[in-house]
Structures are given as C-alpha cells and as structure tokens.
Amino acid sequence: MACTRRTKTLVSTCVILSGMTNIVCLLYVGWVTNYIANIYIKVPMPLPERKLEGDKRGDTLRIMERLDRLENVVNQHIQETPGRGDDSQPDTSFSDSSLFAHWGQELGPDNRRVALKMFQYYGYNAYLSDRLSLERPIPDLRPDGCKNVTYPLNLPQMSIVFIFVNEALSVIQRSIRSAINRTPSHLLKEIILVDDNSNNNELKEKLQDFVSETNSQRPGFIKMVRHAKQEGLIRSRVSGWRAATAPVVALFDAHVEFNVGWAEPVLERIKEDRTRIISPSFDNIKYDTFEIEEYPLSAQGFDWELWCRYLNPPKLWWHKGNKSAPIQSPALIGCFVVDRLYFEEIGLLDEGMEVYGGENVELGIRVWQCGGSVEVLPCARIAHIERAHKPYTEDLTSHVRRNALRVAEVWMDEFKSHVYMAWNIPLEDSGIDIGDISERKALRKRLQCKTFRWYLVNIYPEMRMYSDTIAYGVLKNSLKNDLCLDQGPDNDNVPILYLCHGMTPQVRVTSLSPCTTAGGSISPDLIYHLCILFPSYTHPCLQMLAQLDYHLISAVSSSSYRSLQPITSEQIVFRDCLTLL
C-alpha cells in the first residue's frame, strides 16, 4: 500500500556534482520534512536569475504559488495566443512559428500575417482550413479485415453531439459534412451543436445560416444548444446528451473528420451489450498542413496525474491475430459513443469537475468498476485535429489537477496517494478546493462498484503501483534555496539544477528500494526510465553502466559501487554512500 509516512529511514545513494568544491545537504521542501539522504551538490556558475521569490506564509502555500506562477509562464510561451476577439496584429516574432515549418513558404508577408493570427487564435491552421473543401476525401485507414464485414440492418440510431467554443467555422462545417456523408442516413437521427458561449461572430449568423440550409433538406436535423455562459467541455458534453433523443449518443469535439464505415461497428457492439462504452480509433489531422496522419492501433489509458495517454493493446488482443477485433481499454481519450439511457444510469460525467481534463479517465474507471466495459474499435476510425496549443483556456493544468483530485477521492481508495504524489501535493491541507463529492460517493455506493485495486489488477495491470513509498517532494539546495534537482531536458535525460517550481520534472519519490529518481518519478509504466539503481538490485529500473562521461543512465564503478570515476563536465552522478539513522 502506497503511503507518505514522514520518518527517518535507510537510504543508500547520494548525488554528487563533478568538480565539486562545496558540499551541502539537500532537504525535501514543503510537506516532506525529514532527512531522506545525504546529498552533496555543487552550485553551477553562473547562477540562473532568481525569478521565483519565496515568502513567509508557509511551505504549502509557497509551493502552490510557485506552481501557479510557473504554469502561467509556460502557457504564455507555449500557446502563442492573443486575446480572443483581439484585433491587434500578431507578434511578428513568431515568424518562425511551427505553423510555417512544413507549410506556407509560398505565402506573401500579408497572407503569412493573416495565417499566423488565425493560428494563434485557433491553435491550428484555420487559414488553410477555410480554403479546403468541406467534403474532401480522406484515406481509408481501417485494417483490411474491417472492409468486408457485414452488419445487421436493425442497428439503433444515434445522435452525434459536437461541442465547441470559438472553433473555426470551416472546421465545424467539415465535421458536420463528414458525419452526414460517412454515416448511413438511416442510422443518424440528428446532429446537436453545443456552443459553449463562443464570442467568435462567425459562429453566430454564418453558422446559423449553414444549419438552416442543412435543415431545409432535413427539417430539425441539426439542433443548436447555446450556453449563456461558458461551462467548459465536461458540462457541454452533458448538455449535448440532454438534448439528444436517439437511443445512442456519440459525443465528439467539433474538429474531427469521420472515416467510411465508422458507425456500424460501434452500433453493433453497443446493441450486443448496452453497458459498453465505445471509442473509435483516432488518427491525426496535422494542425499545420491538415494532412491525415495514421496513428497505430492502441488502447487508451492515463498516468498518475490523470493525463490521458495511448497504450499498446493488451497481449490477449495481439494473440488473437485479428487487427479488426475490439481492444479492451482502461480509459477513454475523450470522444466516445454510449447508450443514452445507460450513460444516465452510470452517472453521466462528473459535472462537479471544471472545464477540461480527467473526466474521460474518471468515466473509464467508473464504468469498469461498476460493471461495464470500455472498448476501442479498429474498424471505426476518426481523424481529430491535435492543436498546437489550446486557446480556450490559459491554464489547463490547474483544472486537470483539481479534477484529478476529485477522481482520486471518489474512486481510487488507498491509491489516491499516487495522484497526490504525482502532482506534488500533500495528502492533507492541500489548499485545493475540489468541491462537494458526496453525490459521486453515493453514486459509487448505489452502483455497488468494485475497488480500485480490482481495477488495477484486472483492467490496468500495466499501471505501476508504489507500495513502498515513504516520502515525496523535491530536493532543494539548502545554500541556494531557489535551485532544485531536475530531470533536465527530455532529449538527453541529464539531471540538472534548475529553478524550483515543484512540477513533474522535479518531483521525486523516496522508497525502500535503492532506486533514485530525478523527476518523472510517478511513472505509470513498469519500466522506470528516469531511475538509477545498483546492478545487484532486480527492480525493473535502468541498471548502471561504468562510463567516463556520466549522465542519468550512468553510474559509479561497477566493481566497488563506491568509488568515483573521473568525469569531464559538471553533471550529477550517483554513488553508494552512508545511511542515515
């Protein structure tokens, strides 16, 4: 059972910077208050500019403030997003924006500025989208075994729900046209558009004209739901479900394109068992060129922060040798199809969550623990735009973090500590208001759902469990307290000292194993790629190699495990050291 007991313990590793001239202790900051290991560190020169000032209001509040401030900085630099509805010129410093890496070299300066401004606003190449056909052909990416399957004629009808906020009009229109053209008309009862209080004027009159034109051929076929205030993705999906009338409801983003033959396999699986929730297999619409990129077949899971992730299909699926077979999936990426009444019986989505993130994971966990199942269908393929940045909110992380804690408290039993560890949040007095969860706990009791341990053992065995954790937090330089041990850039996995921010690259877990980590500690995988341990230990961590130029996957002498080899640059290396009692 995972725990965060704050107690003195035996720890067998230390951290050393080459060429060290100063020896100081590093301590966990915030809620981890004990000496965990002897840490020796040299502060590199020149020192980075101090940007995150401390305060005197307590460790927890200080860490949370640093998290929030870092998130704002990260989002400001990553999103390339001007204010919505802002008519100002785009920042020309983005002339080397990722938008133009593979597209637009032939455009003149004026058109580049227009394209860039639209890209900053939407997160994808709306300039190009406006110039593509609304009924363009896309490649059939289904496995060969899907193309000759015959389906029953008496499949249930479905309602397709598209939710959006400030989406490009042409992208919404293309989503609608592909749904109409590639779904048999007798199976598609209606399309419901949920506008989550967009302020984009194109989505008022022009979208209404498009809806009216379509409805002139099929009266009442497209319904509009407009929110008076912005509710977020989660509650918008529920709004669409409430407006639906078909036996089956498909809940999608309004930036997708459907492939041929997608609907029949989905409806057949739900007709066979109404407690199945179905996800199509997703391909990518590249945000810059709008080309369709085939994604490999996968299941859908999550990490301990509850960010969704793609998984290899389970071994049993591979052993069948049938690439058209349904794939058992621990969770959902976000878009899914469900029996309308069963969705209500199982509790819809958690409307106590905010904006975006975690609702898909929560639904997958809940369905499995409460007697249903989740499948990904290789024969149902849908292409989805993966934005370069998400313009509809400036701080997704704070919402995902709050939502993740709701999931942990309702569904994860003793494993909720893993989520707190992943987010570097204390189990008590976190300072985060997750809202009232009494109704969700009552739902779990009423449905007589299984434990989260059952879910991990039977549905998500790939998920790593941390049964020997004794503490978590960050390692901080006590002589330069704005610097922390950090995993370093992902491209070389060299640990570094970096300004303390307390997010994933700096969070580490101390356990009874000799496995020492530098960021990325709460890995969902059994392979612990940011971990160093002694070769004699059998835990599935990276083993150490005797090398002259040490880095994260290097180590000390493999013969004595105590001596240091000469090294040529200032990098952190590990050696066996004395224990603390």
From TrEMBL:
One Pfam family named in its UniProt record:
Glycos_transf_2
Q: Domain of life here?
A: Eukaryota
**Cofactor(s) this protein cannot do without:** Mn(2+)
Regions that span the bilayer: 9-31
Question: How is this protein situated with respect to the membrane?
Answer: Single-pass membrane protein; Single-pass type II membrane protein
Q: Where in the cell is it found?
A: Endomembrane system; Membrane
The segment(s) forming the Glycosyltransferase 2-like domain are 159-317
Q: Which UniProt keywords apply?
A: Disulfide bond, Manganese, Membrane, Signal-anchor, Transmembrane, Transmembrane helix
InterPro entries this protein is in?
A: GalNAc-T, Glyco_trans_2-like, Nucleotide-diphossugar_trans
What name has this protein been given in UniProt? Glycosyltransferase 2-like domain-containing protein
Please tell me the species this chain comes from.
Amphiprion ocellaris (Clown anemonefish)
